[in-house]
Design a protein that fits this description.
202 residues, globular, 41% helix, 3 strands, three-stranded antiparallel beta sheet
Length: 202
Amino acid sequence: QGLSEATIQSYLRALRKVVNSACKKKVISKDLNPFGVNGFTIGATNSRKDALTKEQIHSIMNFKILEGSKEDLARDIFIFQYLSNGMNINDLCKLKEENLKQNGQYIEFIRTKTRKMKKTQQTIIAYVRPESKSIIEKWGNKNRLPSDYIFPFYNNLKNKDINTGVERYKLEKITSDLNERLKNIGSQLQIPFPLTTGIARH
């Protein structure tokens, strides 16, 4: 269906888990397991990741944009991600005031991707640079309580009994909107690949 090798492999690993579980519970015979001994090997892909040079980062930071516009927000969020050790956009949306440590000098959080994995939870600590602090002051929620989100993206989800489908839809909409503005900025700066929130991680 035109999916990338990495996506296909991700789906296949999930399928392999289901098949192996079915074999273990004797729902199906081990002989029917396509991933068994001498069976299908999923493999791995070492995909090339586009990354920006320091000069390109500076050009994005210094790009003249209408103050308070959606492009201004997208650029600032991208810079915040970049300066926060390449923070994932979902983790950024879920940042709360309680994640700020030592009077706001550091951000400490557990990656959403690993939160449910007891053995491999990944705690990230990022120094809050002056530029990052300015972005929080500019776009963040005001008069925050410890349990309040720093940025307003998930405000309407707070204290609601939501399922992962609702949260995922919200995240996809936020990411899509940000990426649309970032690609426009990247095009004007003649960056040779689409500028997206994901690039800030590389």
